[in-house]
Amino acid sequence: MNPINEQLTNPKSIAILGGSEDRSKPGGAVLHNLIKNGYNGYIYCVNTKGKNIQGQITYNDIGDMPHVDCAILAIPAAACPDAVKTLCSKKGCRAVIILSAGFAESGPEGSLLQKQIVDTANKYGAVVIGPNCTGIMTERYSGIFTTPGSINRKSGVRTVDLISGSGATIVYLWEQSIVHGISLANVFSIGNSAQVGAEDILEYLDGTYIKGKSSDVIMLYLESIPDPEKFCRHAASLTGKGVHITAIKSGKGSDGKRAASCHTGAMATPDQAIESLFRKAGIIRASGREELINIAAVLTYGKPEGNRLAIVTHAGGPGVMLADVLNSYNINIPKFTGKDAELLKSRLFNGSSISNPIDFLATGTLDQLMAIIDFCEMRGDVDAIAVIFGSHGLSDVAPAYRAILDRIKISGKIIYPIFPSTVNAAGAIKDFHKKGGVTFSEETDFAKAFAKVALCPGCFENDPAPAIDIKSIRSIIESSASGFLSPGASRMLLDACGIERTKEIIAYDRKELVNAAIEIGYPVAIKVLGHVHKTDIGGVSLNIADENTLITEFLRMMHLKDCRGVLVQPMISGTEVYIGAKKLPGFGPLVFCGLGGVYTDAIKDVAFGLSPISRKEAQYMISSLKCSLLLKGSRGKEGVNGTVFAEYLRRISALCRAAPEIEEITLDPLIGNNKKIIAIDVRIRIS
Amino acid sequence: MNPINEQLTNPKSIAILGGSEDRSKPGGAVLHNLIKNGYNGYIYCVNTKGKNIQGQITYNDIGDMPHVDCAILAIPAAACPDAVKTLCSKKGCRAVIILSAGFAESGPEGSLLQKQIVDTANKYGAVVIGPNCTGIMTERYSGIFTTPGSINRKSGVRTVDLISGSGATIVYLWEQSIVHGISLANVFSIGNSAQVGAEDILEYLDGTYIKGKSSDVIMLYLESIPDPEKFCRHAASLTGKGVHITAIKSGKGSDGKRAASCHTGAMATPDQAIESLFRKAGIIRASGREELINIAAVLTYGKPEGNRLAIVTHAGGPGVMLADVLNSYNINIPKFTGKDAELLKSRLFNGSSISNPIDFLATGTLDQLMAIIDFCEMRGDVDAIAVIFGSHGLSDVAPAYRAILDRIKISGKIIYPIFPSTVNAAGAIKDFHKKGGVTFSEETDFAKAFAKVALCPGCFENDPAPAIDIKSIRSIIESSASGFLSPGASRMLLDACGIERTKEIIAYDRKELVNAAIEIGYPVAIKVLGHVHKTDIGGVSLNIADENTLITEFLRMMHLKDCRGVLVQPMISGTEVYIGAKKLPGFGPLVFCGLGGVYTDAIKDVAFGLSPISRKEAQYMISSLKCSLLLKGSRGKEGVNGTVFAEYLRRISALCRAAPEIEEITLDPLIGNNKKIIAIDVRIRIS
Predict the structure, then answer these.
(1) Quick one: pLDDT at residue A153?
(2) Tens digit of pLDDT for each residue in B587-598?
């Protein structure tokens, strides 16, 4: 059950433990904020000294305090466990927000304190936010001790919810929200997440979502995701309802980059899992605060029908830079020509340009701007409009900004206002925000955010799992020892998954060898048995066309260390691809695929997806490969059947779920053509 | 000779034509700005109406005005040519700044006006800035009509010069400079560049550069570079003197992306030429205003000795995000361990982290911060220090900011101040700027800028050109018709350049064919003569091991359209690479290279360099290939000799300069191993 309750989000009374007159202390600052933002329930201040602190009923002893729904703790860490016990057991308190630091983040002693608190809270069915957090803001109250921390929702304006594992990052993101005119609705600083993590808050937002009332945009800053499955489930559910989520997950590390080969599981790092998780849930990932806030700002306008953007500007340079960035994301801006465009041009000053960007010059008038917007609204090849409007400081841009805002509110298409003059037009921009407008200040930051939003494929809904023979799979796995599976068991697993594999015959001596080659038919390949890294020791010989070469190679291989025999396979021509999966703690199987060859290794061209993988997601993975064009065939060379490739990804994903003992599986190479894909070599390691 | 003169940069008198009381007009605004910024020469106002405009001597007729050094024109375009004539011929004026629009940007009539002005100015040796510009600022005066436009140099502070082809972009960049605390020294709005372009201003800055007095950082915003060679010469000269240049060149286009193959010249677009030009001159390219300003801000601190950054933060999140971005650029941050690090940790609060990022917590003190900086300054593995310091709004950060600034001024290592709280700490940040500090507000924007600065190789100085046989080259070229060169002439050109080529014999019949194969030695390759796209029509047959196959393939090829004979070559094994060059108008030959194969084509992995190419630049080009690791050899496969590859790039570059008739040249493939590289096929088109 989700720990977040009504006492936390909509408390009838709030106690501030450590409430103070000193507003430079968290206890004083949070009390002040609560009062200032018009919380209309009962406020009790608890402080061993003082009375009537900040004009509120003050108790020197918590024992004297009446029952309370919610408590905000700004007292030393060591005093918190007892306080929580008293609150829960004697005061009916079911929501605790702990601002204090000195818990798990500071060492084992702090961890113990934290555990005691959660144990108490769980016993009484109370929710705990933090510790080591800056507080929360809901529709009912602002329980935040940092500034900004004020409720600034405006009626009729799309709001944004914010969840962060870093208190300072909440402060900075909130400041940036103000700079862009974004209204925050719910803010959760989760601190150490002793009991409540981002997953729980997403679950709560998912469960309480009401279209038209709840925020349609969520910003996240996370340093860890302890329960990826739960996180994904609720994020995907929210995006499925039309909520847009953008998130930073920091601490990416650089391990994957150093990996020598992407054909192995070495590239399958936790960060790749996060990337896959976000994609699956339809979350747009950002790598910095400014990017996050720009994406959130774009999302407050909703998602446009398509990515065909009209750029309207009275300053040439920024329009061109905006177009450059869109081009770099392969988003082409439509070119405007024809009678209507010429008519529009005739209404603009000499030297204006209408092809897109539409540049109506620094001297352009507001009437011209409105005529341009009319023009863009009428066009079938425009999904949204970006208006760049700065100030050279000679005249007041406020009337223009008001007209743009009015237009934004009634327009059938999204209009993004880019107002670069953060100094010259500071007042007019502030005014624009007050009236509910959200702005961008830098056109290329806007363009990157727009591109990320436009190119986000949305969440991938689950398909029914592919039909694989689970009974056989279980039986093979259960009868195998841990470590690498035998070739025989591996082959049987492929058969159980319906993955076609190459014909192969084991030969231990010359006679068996020659017969095997005849049965399979020349040319053949032979590979030493029992070695994992066959190629590296010279244990693979390809394209053997005749018996003489066959025997020579066989004799050579039999001298390799531990070589007992060889595998004889037909030579199959086609394009080499590979598929693999690796179990990542917390995430489950991370499936990956790519084209064979040293080039794709050199550029780390590999696509990842978390199991389970839907058809659409499998196709997306394949098409996201940098070399994906080659899979379609090129220069007269046959391609690889994409449907089969996608289906194999799904089957390997399903296999790993059916057999969670599988730590790592690699099918490398698979050889494919337009019709089918055949596994040549497979390695499976189980625990 | 550079048109920029003393009358422009340091005029004893300035006339404002169209000077006005109305400060919402350019003529009024520029006059106001000139007065407000304390210009101490004579100011004459010329206006048909009014007197004593803004308290200045005002003439209703230009004829009454005394001699003047410099004139700023804010009058209708049509009136400018006559005004310039009067100024130059009768008033001794040798510097004209034309703010007015309505010239080349608005059509052919305007172009004519512009030309008349330049002709007059050239006749009298006068300089013309603009038209259609916002003015200039020098050490002596501010002749800018937009805001901001005030002289804000502070003594002892590194200044930045700004040159822009877009007037609005100057406004916005200037506003951003204020936000970051950057002091601008010289500002040039070049407008239509009728006479003076960015090249000329760079030449001027280059010619007048005085270490310690001139700005050491230049920001450029450009939409075109009419004279790339001049641009490159002076930019490289400036960077050679220790000046840092960062530039936006917008209007990148997207043609190169659509090119089917990068082995041909199709990828050699003007934007690739710009990229190469900037690299050659040591210019750091930015793609947006915020990136440009962040790079400039980093550069105001000079270039650090290395890229080993210590990250000091009292907010966990931003420190991790900063490290993530550096990792993404393959810049590893040093990890701090050992006795000193433990000692430092003991001085910090519980829960602090010292491994890098050094996180001293939100509650950390100023003393602790100073101890951390001491620690970083002592370490041999730290080149520079980034300090992230925001405000949660409870206390005043001004004392900390003052201490940081004091430290910046005396520290032996660069300290970059990242102050994210642009709202909470707005006043303290402003104060920091007033005292000469330059700040960053977003850690990932800083990190990207730092990475670009740290990874910039600097300008590439020229080596002596490689010794090629220019006499032979000229004779071959001059005796060839335009179009594709014959195989014989192409081969001779390679020989004249000292590029090794494969042995080859032409065979027109079976007998010649069989003899040729015997002479060359099996296996051989045969290729039809005379076709440019041989592969596409089946005109190439490789790996022919015996006479039977040879004859079969020959007979097949002789049935291809227009096939008169074949070329017989030995099969050479090794790694395929290619080199090409294409003449780009204005830029000269753009040389390119890459590894062969469909993969490198699919990901457009190609490196470019403008001729002439120094040894270092050639090596840089090769190492910048995404697949460059493969050139070193991998998985037991031999690599390609990098010295020879680089030398061939230089020789092709030299060939194109010796024979400017060459429009396009492609050596594809060349086959290389550890010792040598041999050209297999070459195509050369001349004009």
Answers:
(1) 81
(2) 999 999 999 877
User: Pairing mode, if any, of strands A682-686 and A662-672?
Assistant: antiparallel
Domains A6-131 and A309-455 share a fold: yes
DSSP label at residue A485: P
pLDDT computed for residue A603 by the predictor? 83
Q: Which residues of A touch B546 (CB under 8 A)?
A: none
Higher pLDDT, B1 or B324: B324
pLDDT reported for residue B612? 95
Distance CA B438, CA B157 (A): 9
Q: What is the pLDDT of residues A351-367, one digit of tens each?
A: 899 999 999 998 899 99
- HSE at residue A630, side-chain half, CA atoms within 13 A, is 24
Q: Give CA–CA dist A497/A504, Å, rounded.
A: 18
Closest alpha carbon to B41 in B99, B100, B95, B122 = B95
List chain A domain ranges. Answer: 6-131, 152-300, 309-455, 575-686
Nearest-Cα distance to chain B for A515, in Å, is 28
Q: Which member of A25, A314, A629 has the closest CB to residue B602?
A: A629
- Judging contacts by C-beta atoms under 8 Å, the chain B residues touching residue A350 are 102, 106-107, 110
Residue entry with tokens 């642009």: B422
Whether residue B222 contacts residue B197, with contact meaning beta carbons closer than 8 Å, is answered with: no
* Euclidean distance between the first and the last CA atom of chain B, given in angstroms as a whole number: 33
Give the distance from residue B318's alpha carbon to the nearest chain A alpha carbon, in angstroms. Answer: 7
B309-313 vs B358-359, strand pairing mode: parallel
Residues B422, A630: C-beta atoms closer than 8 Å:
no
Tokens of A677: 């894909």
CATH code of the region B152-300: 3.40.50.261
| Cβ-defined contacts of B345-353 (< 8 Å, 24+) | B347/B371, B348/B372, B349/A106, B350/A102, B350/A106, B350/A107, B350/A110, B351/A101, B351/A102, B351/A105, B351/A106, B351/A107, B351/A110, B353/B316
Burial status of residue B558 (CB atoms within 10 A of its CB: 0-12, 13-18, 19 or more)? middle
How do B524-528 and B566-570 pair as beta strands? antiparallel
- Residue A125 is classified by DSSP as T
Closest Cα in chain A, distance from residue B223 (Å): 8
CATH topology for A575-686 is: D-amino Acid Aminotransferase; Chain A, domain 1 (3.30.470)
Residue of A nearest to B362 (CA): A168
| Cross-chain Cβ contact B321/A420 below 8 Å | no
Domain A6-131: CATH architecture, name and number where available: 3-Layer(aba) Sandwich (3.40)
Identify which of A102, A110, A390 has the shortest CB distance to residue B168: A390
Widest pairwise Cα distance in chain A: 101
Q: Does B164 touch chain A (CB under 8 A)?
A: yes
Model confidence at B78: pLDDT above 80: yes
- Span A309-455 CATH architecture: 3-Layer(aba) Sandwich (3.40)
**Which chain A residues are within 8 Å of B150, Cβ to Cβ?**
none
B634 and A CB contact within 8 Å: yes
Interchain proximity A603–B603, CB inside 8 Å: yes
Residue bearing tokens 């090249």: B199
Res B532: pLDDT: 63
Q: Which residues does chain A have with pLDDT short of 70?
A: 255-260, 531-532, 634-636
Hey, which residues 597-626 in chain A have their CB within 8 Å of chain B?
597-600, 602-603, 605, 626
B583, β-bridge pairs: B589
CB A209 within 8 A of CB A234: no
The whole-angstrom separation of Cα B469 and Cα B39 is 60
DSSP letters for B191-244: TT-SS--HHHHHHHHHHT--TTTS-SEEEEEES--S-HHHHHHHHHHHHHTT-E
ipTM for this model: 0.94
